[in-house]
């Protein structure tokens, strides 16, 4: 007979260390890419993560006979609830050994905390928001995750979708393979739409300035808030979020891949494509020392993959071919860069425009992540 599962809130530094360490043990020898441990410490710190200017969270550890066997977070994003006028909570950082009793105990702890916080609905997993690592991998297990993509073994989906958990599918998120090395492979309608955006509507592509990246992100937020506001799971960026995002993007910046589409000097669309620094993180194995720092400094010579993270068009310009124009700009940039292939995503399964556009770029869905929900 198995020993009982004990779930307790993370209170001490030793608890937080165990919380961070668990996936390194669970996923050793798999396609999972170990994040930098220092970055995880900073991310989970309530005084340093911008999320905690508009949200709160509690981390939990599950133990059996004193051994850590699972973890979970429960969080409330007040900005999300204010925008959607609801009382939704989230769970995230979900990791557990292959045992339904462990998962049940973790979910019970998260649900109890969220009910006490006044929530009547829960969605997840997400770490801590949908724009960070989100969802459970249900397809594409053999592929290594790109930057800010989760990876879990198949038993996660199987146990989570057991009716005993009470969770149901909320949304699937797609990641598409992307090869921008050969413009000749593009669908001719996409090419003509992109070219017409420039010749008929006078749209021009400008590359973001790294020096003025924080200022550029204010404009990005305008596009993001207009283009994504009707999408499932949307939450607007705050000033503090943008400050933190600017610092993150400096670490994955590659010249030419942060793009702005303008009409008479005014921004109408933007795309942010980042180098896949997971290729470096795998070599670093979670640590800066002894040689991790050396790999990171040489990232521009090592990384040859990209991830299209954001591509959005203001609603009043979506008829102009602005999206296809940004797609074509990726192929033009690839001619001058070592980054020629990777993935685009995640993309909501309900986002018909982006799904259609990526198929026109010969993209194929190679990973699917599932987000779950439950009434409390």
Write a structural description:
The protein has 376 residues and is of the alpha+beta class. The chain folds into two domains: 165 residues, Aminopeptidase; 199 residues, Aminopeptidase. It contains 13 helices and 15 strands. The strands form two sheets. Strands 1, 2, 3, 4, 5, 8, 9, 10, 11, 12, 13, 14 and 15 form a 13-stranded mixed β-sheet that branches. α6 packs across α12. The mean pLDDT is 93.
Tell me the major beta sheet.
Answer: 13 strands, mixed
Portion in strands: 25-35%
Tell me, what's the shape?
globular
Highest CATH level, the class of the largest domain: Alpha Beta
How many structural domains in the coordinates?
Answer: 2
Task: Give a quick precis of the structure.
With 376 residues, the chain is an alpha+beta fold. The chain has helices at 13-26, 37-44, 78-84, 100-116, 155-160, 188-199, 213-227, 239-252, 278-284, 292-297, 299-302, 322-334, 352-360; strands at 6-9, 55-64, 67-77, 88-96, 121-124, 126-127, 133-134, 136-139, 168-179, 203-207, 258-263, 266-275, 305-313, 341-348, 365-375.
């Amino acid at each position: 007979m198995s020993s009982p599962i004990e779930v307790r809130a993370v209170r001490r530094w030793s608890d937080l260390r165990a919380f961070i360490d668990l996936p390194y043990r669970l996923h050793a020898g798999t396609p999972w890419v170990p994040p930098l441990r220092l970055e995880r410490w900073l991310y989970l710190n309530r005084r340093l993560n911008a999320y905690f200017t508009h949200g709160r969270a509690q981390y939990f550890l599950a133990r059996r006979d004193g051994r850590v066997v699972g973890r979970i977070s429960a969080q409330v994003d007040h900005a999300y609830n204010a925008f959607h006028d609801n009382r939704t909570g989230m769970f995230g950082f979900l990791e557990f050994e292959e045992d339904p009793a462990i998962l049940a105990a973790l979910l019970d702890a998260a649900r109890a905390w969220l009910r006490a916080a006044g929530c009547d609905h829960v969605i997840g997993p997400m770490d801590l928001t949908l724009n960070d690592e989100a969802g459970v991998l249900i397809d594409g297990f053999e592929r290594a995750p790109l930057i800010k993509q989760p990876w879990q073994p198949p038993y996660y989906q199987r146990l989570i979708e057991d009716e005993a958990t009470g969770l149901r599918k909320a949304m699937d998120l797609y990641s598409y393979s992307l090869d921008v090395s050969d413009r000749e492979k593009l669908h001719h309608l996409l090419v003509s739409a992109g070219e017409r955006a420039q010749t008929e509507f006078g749209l021009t592509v400008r590359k973001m300035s790294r020096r003025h990246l924080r200022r550029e992100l204010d404009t990005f937020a305008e596009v993001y808030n207009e283009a994504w506001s009707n999408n499932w799971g949307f939450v607007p960026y705050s000033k503090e979020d943008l400050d933190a995002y600017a610092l993150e993007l400096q670490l994955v910046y590659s010249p030419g891949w942060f793009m702005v589409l303008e009409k008479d000097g005014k921004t109408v669309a933007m795309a942010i494509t980042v180098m896949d620094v997971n290729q470096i993180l795998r070599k670093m194995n979670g640590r800066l020392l002894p040689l991790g720092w050396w790999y990171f400094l040489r990232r521009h010579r090592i990384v040859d993959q990209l991830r299209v993270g954001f591509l959005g068009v203001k609603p009043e310009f979506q008829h102009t071919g602005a999206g296809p124009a940004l797609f074509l700009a990726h192929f033009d940039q690839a001619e001058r860069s070592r980054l020629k292939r990777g993935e685009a995503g995640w993309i909501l399964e309900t986002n018909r425009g982006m799904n259609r556009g990526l198929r026109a770029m010969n993209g194929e869905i190679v990973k699917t992540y599932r987000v779950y929900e439950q009434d409390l």
